[in-house]
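Why this split exists: single-chain examples teach little about how molecules sit against one another. For that reason, every record in the complexes split bundles all components of an assembly together and asks for one structure covering all of them. Below is a record exactly as it appears in the raw files.
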Amino acid sequence: MKKNTILGFGVLLLLQSCVKNPLSGPDDTYAFRMPDYFPEPTYTFANNPITREGFTLGKKLFNDPLLSSDNSIACSNCHVKSVAFTDPQHRLSLGVDERAGIRNAPSIVNMAFMPEFFWDGGVNHLDFVAINAIENPLEMNEKLGHVIAKLNDDPDYPALFRQTFGIQDTITSPYFLHALSQYMLLLVSDRSKYDMVQQNKATFTAAEFAGQSVFENKCSSCHPAPLFTTYDYTNNGLDTAFEDLGRGRITEATMDQGKFKIPTLRNVALTSPYMHDGRFKTLDAVLEHYDQHMVLSPSLDPLFLQSDPPGIRLTADEKEQLKAFLQTLTDYELLKDPIF
Amino acid sequence: MNRIKIINSLLFLPLILLTGCKKEEVVDTKQPGTVEIEFDNIALINNVPIQLQLASPGSTEYPYENAMGQQFNINLLRYFISKIELTGPNGESFTDPVSAAAAGTKGYYLIDESDVNSQFVQLKDVPAGTYTKLTFTLGVDVDGVQEGAVGGILDPATNHMFWNWNSGYIAVKMEGQSDASNGGVSGTETLEGGSDHGIAYHVGGWKDIPNSAFVYNNKRMSFDFDVDLKVERLEQPHVHMYFDVLKLFSGVNSVDFTGNHNIHKPIDGVPVAENMEHAFQYDHIHQ
């Protein structure tokens, strides 16, 4: 059987070779690429090399509501491409039966570089991210094992998995998770105006340039380039008491209560609403918070205590400049890229 | 593997046919052999090992008692064994190969009270020699977690031993009922819908972060044999280990089924984890 297939392809190759354009190089559309000023990715690529087929299967899965208990919610419901893979409509993302979650859907770009996942960092590997969303009763409310059973019963998926991963038997969860990871890994946001400036292909306007300077002085301790986050957990003075313990829910350390993962600011102009619970609708509201409305609590990041009252004082001009700079982090090329 | 063996033997067949008439078949006893380890789950009552009887979820018949005199039964008992080693007095050493990939795993064993086959672990290609000590890890360590999604016995969709919200594998999972429990357990396989007397002990933890709930709860343990385990080709020695479920709740810490009966995260599992290594016991070897 295998031999026949190989011979078959041999004939095909002979027939096709004369029309093939000799100048076209290898297709690297589905290769993992990043600029030289990015850090090393955290993902274990050796266990799951990205292929065109794997990525394409991952994209199909990412957009398939089969992953939820009542076949109503896909990953893409709350991670919408047009707004940099976040949820523009809901402060708290909605799962099956319109169940409201406890947090705002975070951006999923540049997860290849992320050391821990979700707002509380409870998940240690990108492959395991989907399990958490699938099995959360307030999100997809499904069981991983049942998703796999549905995939095996589907008319299309078994053949797609066999072609993609060369497996003989039924679909198993590592291949399902690997396909989703392949899709998410290529969501590298590195084509914003900021990146063009880094690569000497564009220049900042005066306002953007001034904004970068304010940003570096006042924001970059927690949001350093090029990923615009340290991926640490911090309390940025939203509340005096915590309904959602955030990182403290995972570590159970008192000093981690009220801390959440510092989000990337890449595409931040598009990722409203803001904060772990989506409480701020606009960047203006976010900047007002840091300038004027931070509140004290035991785990508040000491960086904010350098000012009294705690926070980051910003003039009206600085706020406008900052917003101009933050706009340069929007990666329109990613959002228009037809492969996603 | 088997298929390769068959192909190999087919290839050598003409050779054997040609030489078969001259040669006597001699078994080289210095060739590697197979060792079987049985993990026999029991309740040691008055020093007598009693085979476990799994209860139906919700059952109020309680054949077992913890150190505090609280009666209980067991719906489910399952644990991971990994990184098995055998060592001997003359430098003999066998390390069971461990690997984890999407296509499957090696060296990880999920012992399940409801599946007799799972309780017999076959170690293949153990070098010939004399062995006097067995070492293994209870649980799945960092190398089974940090590489991402893998299949085989570590497949999170099928083993029901994976924590999704705080990633990692449960080392020991026990669910049942006790008259001392006031119910309200959550996130279980056998007590969904809320049993009035449910108890759930999901114990694990693969990393240690000081002053946090991340606690390393896996246990590496060694057992000395009272007689030599002789390994050679055509011998299939059998090591009989006991796992005494009563010790889970009484080894060094007395576990109270009242108010401490719904354990789902590493830090809460510490008292049971500290008991776990006392639950295992070497019993005997069949040579």
